[in-house]
Q: What sequence folds into this?
């Protein structure tokens, strides 16, 4: 456990120093842990586990957009789990549950929980359709078709800078819509 | 969109960088400050006897109290803008102005009173104080909330209350140079009431706008 969390902290430091691949690896590494914790929290609140993926995606978006609040001298896991807990509480409140989320839901992971395959979630996909055309095109191209920034720029005859701006604005708009809907 | 696809788009956005919360909060307060100063200059102004007042330690003490509210409130609000942060271990910073006031009230009590206690407490400006501090706070409160929106506080209402204390502390610093009531009893009563109003507004608004 300690080793895993130290590894996350190292990956996040590299990510903040500009290593996009380390960032990708980090997000993939934390996702199964977040998913298990979200399921556990939903089960405890008497909710079906099929909403877990929506919560995981909301956590990942928040992690991404608020990563400048992480102190690179501090361990990564407590920061991550605090965001996870907040997002789980928000999600349960939206469903009208009075919530008491156990801190342990996020800080402990039961050994033997198999990392699962990627899963899709309804809410991000639904909100994606409400984005401005350009942001949606860019997000689709990069996320779904796994095109690079460069290829996406060529495809839509945009500059790479404009693709980056549309990508970031799209992610920020998605997060705001998920929060406020 | 499945989660792997979402992660791919997040990784592609990794080069995007934003300033730290402290930098955004500082800028927002600097943008808001001229508005509060404008309210001050238009309706209040520095008291005419300021040169003599400066030799009165109780006049100077007012600034020590208001700044010992504003500066620690800025520090604590920045701390709380991190999701994993707790108030524990930091909350005592907010007791600094309370301690200073207690010392000031104690020292005034030991001196030969220039006025009866009730007169010192009620002063001449209590109503102006209750209006002016919240009014000058509002632009600064908006700035503080804007700056803290950049953070990720786990307790938005608490972070909003801190934004209220920041703006009340700064507005009270301006007000202190106008007000001719220097007794720490006056400060402890009316400045505190005014700051409490602003803090309540900050908490109510913060609960809505500081969710991330």
A:
């Amino acid at each position: 456990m300690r080793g895993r969390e130290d590894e996350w902290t190292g990956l996040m430091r590299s990510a903040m120093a500009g290593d996009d691949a380390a960032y990708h690896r980090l997000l993939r590494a934390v996702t199964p842990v977040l998913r298990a914790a979200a399921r556990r929290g939903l089960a405890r609140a008497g909710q079906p586990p099929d909403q877990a993926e929506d919560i995981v995606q909301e956590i990942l978006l928040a992690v991404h957009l608020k990563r400048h609040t992480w102190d690179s001298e501090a361990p990564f896991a407590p920061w991550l789990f605090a965001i996870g807990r907040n997002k789980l509480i928000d999600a349960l409140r939206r469903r009208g549950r009075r919530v008491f989320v156990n801190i342990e839901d996020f800080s402990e992971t039961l050994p033997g929980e198999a990392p699962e395959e990627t899963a899709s979630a309804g809410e991000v996909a639904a909100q994606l359709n409400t984005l401005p055309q350009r942001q949606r095109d860019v997000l689709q191209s990069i996320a779904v078709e796994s095109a690079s920034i460069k290829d996406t720029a060529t495809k839509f005859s945009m500059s790479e800078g404009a693709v980056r701006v549309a990508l970031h604005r799209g992610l920020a708009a998605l997060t705001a819509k998920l929060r406020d809907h | 969109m499945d989660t792997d696809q979402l992660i791919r788009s997040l990784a592609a956005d990794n080069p995007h960088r934003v300033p730290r919360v402290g930098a955004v909060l500082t800028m927002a307060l600097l943008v808001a400050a001229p508005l509060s100063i404008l309210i001050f200059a238009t309706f209040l102004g520095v008291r005419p006897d300021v040169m003599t007042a400066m030799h009165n330690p109780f006049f100077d003490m007012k600034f020590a109290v208001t700044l010992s509210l504003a500066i620690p409130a800025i520090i604590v609000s920045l701390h709380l803008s991190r999701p994993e942060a707790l108030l524990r271990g930091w909350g005592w910073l907010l007791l600094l102005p309370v301690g200073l006031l207690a010392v000031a009230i104690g020292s005034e009590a030991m001196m030969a009173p220039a006025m009866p206690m009730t007169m010192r407490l009620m002063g001449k400006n209590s109503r102006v104080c209750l209006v002016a501090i919240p009014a000058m706070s509002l632009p600064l409160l908006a700035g503080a909330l804007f700056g803290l929106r950049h953070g990720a506080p786990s307790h938005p209402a608490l972070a909003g209350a801190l934004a209220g204390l920041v703006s009340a502390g700064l507005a009270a610093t301006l007000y202190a140079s106008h007000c001719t009531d220097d007794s720490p009893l006056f400060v402890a009563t009316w400045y505190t009431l005014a700051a409490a109003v602003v803090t309540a507004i900050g908490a109510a608004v913060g609960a809505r706008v500081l969710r991330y």
